[in-house]
């Protein structure tokens, strides 16, 4: 039979296949600013033009009876005209020319300057002082573990849903620092029986391992990788984002508890390169209602739209092309240090990372902090240790215990730039905390409580001759009283004294031995003065100690 009698059917099949591809993968259809769109149209034009040329300028026959002949035989009637060859070549030529033309070879200055410029500022004056009661001690891995445990507490729920581990996001929710984890359907049959969405999401406090909340008042109907029209990317594309660059959807919770997806929009500044965030599609995870915002018009509760990969690439480009791309001697080149952190400073979300010279592993030449909404840039030009070097130093101090450090957070501790991290055992449970000086990572303070680790750290700073900015120190409460009980315990590394005063029998004061030599000589009945950060009753770690009885010679 002759195929050319069925040209219309062939093209209908091609249209159906193209439509199926668009539905399945929801590609960007903009060919002018996005490589994905250009490749899509180049493939479509090639496919349709090629099939048209084959059918129009030749004859394809199919043999079913004569086994001696080839079952398929194509006989060209004439050569392809130039316009057909031109149509097949131009789309791919366009892709190659734009891709090469937008490379760093022609736009090194744009690559270097995309991040922007900022005058270096002093770390101690720009970074807010750390609140020890609000330190994020729970990292992403521990948050997932705690959320999974919470999910297991609900009978039958674990068989219906699973944790959306690809969308775990740290954020401020109504002033609290939390990890938000959506719940996904556990398979297509669970989705069919729960088309209205999964049973909510889980919040894990970043500052308290005991604060894990199952939020079941809001369903999560739309999420990445869901089925059919409930897939987030497909929903956003079909909802109006056909020609938008969209990337990096993040799961965020509004202050009223409603879950949303923040789907970043971007545009390439040079051809198919230099992606720059322009705003976001804000999608209600329950209803699917969506609205597009620019950076300037975003709701105030949205913490981040800048993809972390964009920012790191821009930092590396700034260091790579500091003197153009022909800098073969690597003069003044730098790059982002391995790893980065998301932190909050004065209510804003930032990406924070060190800068190291090309070839340097442990030393940072400075630090960069970038606002995750408007890309406001802060630069701190101070030499110090990289995050990985600080982790190694902290682990070295407790190597006999085999603890592993979490990725550190940088803090302002009494005017000193300081890395803070938790130390976890082999099961992933937090056992100790560590403070490491950025300037001198051999100064490490560890302890079973944050206050104890801080006291050990401050003592290390003092022993190294580093003066602490007393004006920025956290105000301490003082209590003078009579010792009712005192005892000491040694954990193999530190001596900690536990003390109860007659005037405050409901509180046990934990006093690291490094605070004062007088602790070892203190006895029941001595009058003492203890300085400590304001806390509730219970076990309190002291920061100052003075034996008044010894001063009076009694």
Question: What is the topological layout?
Answer:
Layout: H1 7-25, H2 35-56, E1 58-62, E2 72-76, H3 82-101, H4 104-113, H5 123-126, H6 140-152, E3 161-163, E4 169-173, E5 176-185, H7 188-192, E6 201-205, E7 212-215, H8 232-238, E8 245-253, E9 259-270, E10 273-284, E11 290-294, H9 308-320, E12 334-336, E13 341-345, E14 348-357, E15 363-364, E16 366-371, E17 377-380, E18 384-385, H10 387-397, E19 404-405, E20 409-413, E21 416-424, E22 430-437, E23 444-447, H11 450-463, E24 477-490, E25 495-501, E26 504-512, E27 527-532, E28 539-547, H12 548-552
Parallel strand pairs: 26-28
Antiparallel strand pairs: 1-2, 3-5, 4-5, 5-6, 6-7, 8-9, 9-10, 10-11, 12-14, 13-14, 14-16, 15-18, 16-17, 19-21, 20-21, 21-22, 22-23, 24-25, 24-27, 25-26, 27-28
Helix pairs in contact: 1-2, 2-3
Structure description:
This is Cell shape-determining protein. By secondary structure, this protein is α+β, with helices and mostly antiparallel strands. 26% of the residues lie in helices and 32% in strands. The chain contains 12 helices and 28 strands. The strands form 7 sheets. Strands 3, 4, 5, 6 and 7 form a 5-stranded antiparallel β-sheet that branches. Strands 12, 13, 14, 16 and 17 form a 5-stranded antiparallel β-sheet that branches. Strands 19, 20, 21, 22 and 23 form a 5-stranded antiparallel β-sheet that branches. A hairpin with a 2-residue loop joins β25 and β26. α1 packs antiparallel against α2 and α2 packs antiparallel against α3. The longest helix is centred in the N-terminal third of the chain and has 22 residues. The chain is elongated, with a radius of gyration of 31 Å.
């Amino acid at each position: 039979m002759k195929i050319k009698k069925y040209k219309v059917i062939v093209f209908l099949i091609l249209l159906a296949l193209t439509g199926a591809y668009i539905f399945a993968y929801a590609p960007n259809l903009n060919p002018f600013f996005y490589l994905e769109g250009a490749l899509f149209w180049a493939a479509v034009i090639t496919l349709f033009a090629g099939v048209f040329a084959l059918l129009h300028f030749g004859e394809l026959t199919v043999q079913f009876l004569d086994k001696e002949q080839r079952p398929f035989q194509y006989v060209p009637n004439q050569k392809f005209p130039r316009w057909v060859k031109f149509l097949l070549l131009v789309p791919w030529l366009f892709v190659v020319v734009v891709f090469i033309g937008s490379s760093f070879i022609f736009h090194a200055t744009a690559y270097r300057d995309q991040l922007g410029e900022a005058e270096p500022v002093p770390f101690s004056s720009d970074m807010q002082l750390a609140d020890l009661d609000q330190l994020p001690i729970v990292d992403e891995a521990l948050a997932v573990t705690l959320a999974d445990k919470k999910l297991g507490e609900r009978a039958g729920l674990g068989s219906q849903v699973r944790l959306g581990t690809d969308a775990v996001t740290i954020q401020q929710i109504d002033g609290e620092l939390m990890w938000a984890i959506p719940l996904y359907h556990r398979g297509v049959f669970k989705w069919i029986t729960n088309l209205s969405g999964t049973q909510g999401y889980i919040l894990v406090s970043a500052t308290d391992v005991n604060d894990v909340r199952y939020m079941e008042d809001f369903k999560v109907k739309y999420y990445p990788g869901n089925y059919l029209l409930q897939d987030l990317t497909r929903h956003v594309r079909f909802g109006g984002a056909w020609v938008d660059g969209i990337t990096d959807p993040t799961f965020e919770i509004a202050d009223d508890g409603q879950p949303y997806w923040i789907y970043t929009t971007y545009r390439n500044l040079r051809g198919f390169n230099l992606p720059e965030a322009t705003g976001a599609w804000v999608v209600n995870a329950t209803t699917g209602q969506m609205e597009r915002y620019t950076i300037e018009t975003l709701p105030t509760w949205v913490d981040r739209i800048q993809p972390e990969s964009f920012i790191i690439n821009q930092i590396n480009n700034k260091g790579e092309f500091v003197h153009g791309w022909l800098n073969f001697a690597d003069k003044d080149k730098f790059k982002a240090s391995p790893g980065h952190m998301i932190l909050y400073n004065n209510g804003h979300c930032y990406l924070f990372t060190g800068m190291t010279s090309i070839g340097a592993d442990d030393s940072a030449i400075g630090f960069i902090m970038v606002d995750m909404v408007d890309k406001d840039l802060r630069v701190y030009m101070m030499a110090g240790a990289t995050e990985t070097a600080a982790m190694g130093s902290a682990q070295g101090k407790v190597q006999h215990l085999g603890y592993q450090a979490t990725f550190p957070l940088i803090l302002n501790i009494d005017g000193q730039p300081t890395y803070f991290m938790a130390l976890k055992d082999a099961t992933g449970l937090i056992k100790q905390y560590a403070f490491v000086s950025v300037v001198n990572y051999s100064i490490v303070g560890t302890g079973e409580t944050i206050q104890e680790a801080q006291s050990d750290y401050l003592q290390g700073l003092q022993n190294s001759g580093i003066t602490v900015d007393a004006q920025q120190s956290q105000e301490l409460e003082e209590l003078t009283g009579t010792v009712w009980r005192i005892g000491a315990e040694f954990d193999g590394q530190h001596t900690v004294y536990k003390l109860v005063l007659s005037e405050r029998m409901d509180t046990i004061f934990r006093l690291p031995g490094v605070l004062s030599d007088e602790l070892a000589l203190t006895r029941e009945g001595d009058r003492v003065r203890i300085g400590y950060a304001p806390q509730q009753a219970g076990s309190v770690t002291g920061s100052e100690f003075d034996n008044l009885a010894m001063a009076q010679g009694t």
